[in-house]
Design brief:
Elements: E1 9-16, E2 19-27, H1 32-35, E3 55-65, E4 79-90, E5 95-99, H2 106-113, E6 121-126, E7 129-130, H3 136-143, E8 145-148, H4 152-155, H5 162-172, H6 174-177, H7 181-194, H8 199-202, H9 212-224, E9 230-234, H10 242-256, E10 266-267, E11 274-275, H11 297-301, H12 309-319, E12 322-326, H13 330-336, E13 339-344, E14 347-353, H14 354-359, H15 364-373
Parallel strand pairs: 5-12, 5-13, 8-9, 9-12
Antiparallel strand pairs: 1-2, 3-4, 3-6, 6-7, 10-11, 13-14
Amino acid sequence: MDEVVTVKAVTANVTMNGEPGVHVVAAEGADTDSAVPEAMRPSSQPSHLSSQPLLVARHIDASFTDRAAHRGLFSRGRRRQVLFDVSAEVRAGECLAVIGESGSGKTTLTRIMLGLMATDGGEIAYRGNAVARGSAGMRALRAESSIVFQDPYSSLDPRWTVERSVSEPLWLRRRALGYAFDEVGAKTVQALARVGLDPREFLNRYPCDLSGGQAQRVAIARAIVNEPKVILADEPMSAIDVAARVRILETLQSILHGGGVADGAAVDAGAGRLAAGSDDGNACRTRVVVKPENAVAAVAGNGRGGEDDGSREVRATAERPALIIVSHDLGVVRHIADRILVLHNGRVEESGTTVQVLGSPQSDYTRRLIAAASL
C-alpha cells in the first residue's frame, strides 16, 4: 500500500476579483503570504480573461414545429420561430448569464451553443472551429463540455451509487483522456471534494439518500470530473431551498476560479488519494494531505514548476472553464456572472457586463425584470 505523507496544512483565503473563496495551502509554520502565488494575490487591477472567445454563436435563427397546428398524418405543421438573429459568446474563465422570462428562448439558445440542437441559420464556433454535424469542432465541443440540469434527481440514475454516477464520464472517455484504472477513482474523489462533499460519506450513497442540495452538488461533481472547458448550468438552483442555493453558488464560483470548496474531505493534492481522518477530531474541516515540497506547487500549478508569474496567470486563466448559466434568480446572476444576455421573445433585448445591465439597464424590459425580482 502506498504511504501517504501527511503535512498539517494552513489555509489562507485569497480574494480574486472581489470574491473570497480561493484556499491556498502551505505547510504548518510557513508564511501563508509567501505561499500565495503572485497570480492569485489580491490586485487593484481586474484579472484578464482570455482575449479570444472560447465559444461563439453568431446570428442564430431557430424554429420548431407548432404541434398545436399539426393536423393529420400527412399534413405538414407550421414552423414557429423561437430565436431571431441571436449572437452570444463566452470566454475561458468567464460566466455568461442568459436571463429572460419563461419561453424567451434561453434553453434553446444554450442547447444550440453546445451543439445539442440544430439551427435554421447562423453558426457556432468552438475554439475558432465551426461546429457542424461530424466536424472536428463538434467532436471537440462534445468532448469538452458538460451540463448541470435543473432537477438533479431526474439527471441521476436512482440505481447507481454516487461513485458510479460521478465516475461515468471518466469511464466513457478513459482511454481518450489517458487515465489508468486507479486514476478514475482518484479523480472521482477529487471532484466530490471540490464541491464540498466528503467522499468517505457520499461515495456509496444513492440519490434517494441525498438532500436536494447534496444531489445537485453530486450532479455538479459529475459535470466537472473530466475537467470540461464549457459548462452549461440550466436553472441549477431553482429546485432547491435557499440554504442549499448559497452552497451551490459557492461551488460554482470556486469552479470558475479554478479551485474547490474546502471542506468535506482530506485529499492528497499531489497524488489524488483520499486520506482518512483528521487529527483534531473535527471532520468538517479539510486537511489537505500534500508532500512538503509540493505544498504550494500543488495549488499554484497542479504540481508544475518552472513558470514565472505571468505565464502561470495566462495558463491558469486558459484552464478555467467557461460557465453559461440560465437563471431567473437575478441575485444569483449578480454574484456569479461576468456578463449578461437578456432575451425577450427570442430576440436579444440587451447585453453587457453585469454592472452595466443590472446597474444601468437600457431596455424597459430589463428594468421590468429587475423590478419584478426585487418584489
